[in-house]
Amino acid sequence: MPATRTTLRRGLAAAAALPLLAVAVTACGYGSEAKEDDSAQSNVSAGGKKLSADTVKIGYFPNLTHATALVGIQEGLIAKELGGTTVKPSTFNAGPSEIEALNAGSIDIGFIGPSPSINGYSKSKGQNLRIVGGSASGGVKLVVNPKKIKTLDDLKGKKIATPQLGNTQDVAFLNWISEKGWKVDAQSGKGDVSVVRSDNKVTPDAFKSGSLDGAWVPEPTASKLVAEGGKVLLDESTLWPDDKFVITNIIVSQKFLSEHPDVVDAVLRGTVSTNKWINANPDKAKASANAALEELSGKALPAEVLDPAWKSIQITDDPLAATLEAQADHAVKAGLLEKPDLGGIYDLKPLNKILKAAGQPEVADAGLGVK
Prior knowledge:
- The chain is an alpha/beta fold.
- It contains 14 helices and 14 strands.
- β8 (about 160), α6 (about 170-180) and β9 (about 195) form a beta-alpha-beta unit.
- α8 crosses α12 (about 305-310).
């Protein structure tokens, strides 16, 4: 991430990029197994009329940054818009596996981060997906051991974790290091700062043991580190214009969008309705998301982790397209990506039609929309 907002704004106009490290790119850096949510197979609005598809298969992560999916499915807000068309959810632990599922037709619509969205679109030469909406912004923090690190300059010479080589947070941290004028080899992580690629599931224990001095990670991992004695030294949102950057998109298979536009419209109406409900009822929505996480993982988040994590995530219909382009440019700068043509990655016409009908402002595609 850039050291100043001025620098970042220059980056917003830069070209986007093709990931060389396809398998490494993921929104959150977790594992890679998909899991069907059998409990929600009958998630259908009673007595509703089916649309052009009997079912719609929706993929997402069991993660707070995917709150739109967690709450929208948990509360039946998405199913309500689908009438008699059944929602068939599947959960994933990493972006690459979700992209594979989209390509294979195992899911039709997915909630996913910017890096795997860019990677999936680029690898298919613009043939497999479209980003059709936004879901979440923020929720990424630099947490450190306050006994070892008191200022940002103290990071030099320390061991700082990111979730995975080439993932969204890894690219952000490498770019921030570069803006500081420090040198790090992106592949090895060696340099003025030791960038340690560590799975988010093991990072809290590594931090507690002292083998890591800090981590640039998404929620709820960041708040788990704080619960272990860490201190938030930097919230990534402060590095972006208006304190917003995309952490979760809504993508759809181009084939499904072409064959079932009415179903895509219904899902988007459901996500817009869900996001409105979340923002109007934050405490109820937080409890709903945590209940969904408990059902999916078998364990709810404790209040000391849930509360600060939830507070740092902004739920939005806006895909924040300019920030996706900037994130891609940061990866190019780090030497992890090659420049692709991202023209056409967005199709926001269905979403904007829904927003306009609801009296809400339309959202922009940063010049990367379908012609």
